[in-house]
Amino acid sequence: MRISELIAQNNQFFSLEFFPPKDRAAWPGFFDQVNKLKVLNPLFVSVTYGAGGSTQAYTLEIVSRLKRDYGLEPMAHLTCIGASAQSISSFLDSLNREGINNVLALRGDPPQGQEKFVPDSTEFKYASDLVQFIKNKYPHFCLGVAGYPEGHIEAGSPEEDLQFLKLKLDLGGDFVITQLFFDNDLYFDFVRRVNKLGVDKPIIPGILPIMNLKVIKRIVSLCGATIPKDYLQALEEAQEKHGDAGVKSLGIEYAREQVKDLLQRGAPGVHLYTLNKAEACLQIVSSV
């Protein structure tokens, strides 16, 4: 079923994002985490793949299994990395055969070791190119697109970034999932600014629980998100006093409070970046 239709039928929800393990030997453990998270009754689940499209084939197989074996509504990530009309059509045809018609259309991150994104073709340079191609060739597909509450790290200005988002939605994007953020006011201000452009499509906040201080510092350096000063200081103190376990505990509690506040203030739902960690996600949602 199209995710946009599910969103319209449901008043606040949880959705989940999974990252396929590169090693197939780790798949049983991965699907064990998926099975544990089924109790959350997610509205949909998205499946990403590694930088440079390194696990795209796994994404196709995993979304198929999530639908067939676990009864979940999956959405496959699709990027411009290595994209051609033939390769995209082949991927979408494969999804079609599995009864999957939801895609998150992204430009994609540069492959490891490459500082800037270099398009592989002139046909697919931006996520908007991908959206336009899919809507023209596969109009029955439901398309999610990415939004950046703090602006895309490569955008010339916040205003320019908003115009790019509007373009993706005007070309056929059905809803938005945001980049991670740690200040809910940023999300609600982002929604207000997007709405002011005449856009009224759902904007789903993406929440990432901090599990490891070193990892999150690397992530925010790559995506341009910021950690509030007081929160960062608390994380560093937790690391010093209690190690990684202290950071994880604080990160889960902070994410729980973020989620509660987002829903209380009227967000349509919350998209949890699970890191394939069922226990943490269950703790976050347990008291919401």
How would you portray this structure in words?
- By secondary structure, the protein is α/β, with parallel strands linked by helices.
- The chain has a single domain (3-286), classed as TIM Barrel, CATH 3.20.20.220.
- 48% of the residues lie in helices and 13% in strands.
- The protein contains ten helices and nine strands.
- The chain has helices spanning 3-9, 27-37, 56-70, 85-97, 127-137, 158-170, 184-196, 213-223, 229-264, 278-286; strands spanning 14-18, 45-47, 74-79, 102-106, 142-147, 175-178, 203-204, 206-207, 270-273.
- Strands 7-6-5-4-3-2-1-9-8 form a nine-stranded parallel beta sheet.
- β4, α5 (127-137) and β5 (142-147) form a beta-alpha-beta unit.
- The mean pLDDT is 92.
Quick summary:
With 288 residues, the protein is an alpha/beta fold. The protein is 48% helix and 13% strand. The protein has a nine-stranded parallel beta sheet.
